[in-house]
Amino acid sequence: LAAVSDVFVENYVPGKLAEMGLGYEDIKKIAPHVVYCSITGYGQTGPMVQRGGYDSIAAAVSGLMHITGHEDGEPVRPGVAMTDLATGLYTYGAIMAGLLQRYKTGKGLHIDCNLLSSQVACLTHVAANYLNCKIEAKRWGTAHGSIVPYQAFKTKDGYIVVGAGNDQHFVTVCKILNLPEVSKDSRYTTNTLRVQNRKELINTLSTRFSEKTTNEWLQLFEGSGVPYGPINNMQQVFSDPQV
Q1: Which of 63, 152, 193, 223 has the least C-beta neighbours within 10 A?
Q2: What is the DSSP string of 165-215?
Q3: Which residue ranges does UniProt annotate as crossing the membrane (predicted)?
Q4: 143 within domain boundaries
């Protein structure tokens, strides 16, 4: 079967298939062209390689749970298996690159994909902040650590997420909320100042958002140029014409 296949994918604990005579070196002798991909919890080397890998465990070890949840609450597991999904996407890209290499060289290779490495790679700017500046990460709920306002706001009957990605967006948000004086307040004229005075500003905006329904706010934000959207339940997701 290996001799007539392009890709070999396995997710056994490292070393287990080699014991059965089906490790990469074994398959390579039969089919040197095969792109052999191993998907594990922790990779092929290191002190944790013999541990089984599950999404939630990798999400915990990788720090994803540490940065997920309410600011003053406990760590939270994401609503779907994001670590599994990310690993699958990285695996897909690696296999496609492996097939391209095989096309150019005629040689296969062994790809090592694992849950922990994939999720650590997905930490993006959070990891960069720590590695470059030693800034420890924290949980922000729906908010953003360095952009304000960029979060969910409770309405009369649900929630709306609004992201003021620049100063002009913020002025527009204040205009829609009929709070023009807030955009002129010296505490909020730049994003840096808004981050510094986050609590006071969010309290003011939250009070105004609570005065109308989600649909009323959606109509007011339509065409404004400000990124926004409701927090939908499943019924709303699958009845949305855009979906």
Answers
A1: 223
A2: -SHHHHHHHHHHTT-HHHHH-TTSSSHHHHHHTHHHHHHHHHHHHTTS-HH
A3: none
A4: no
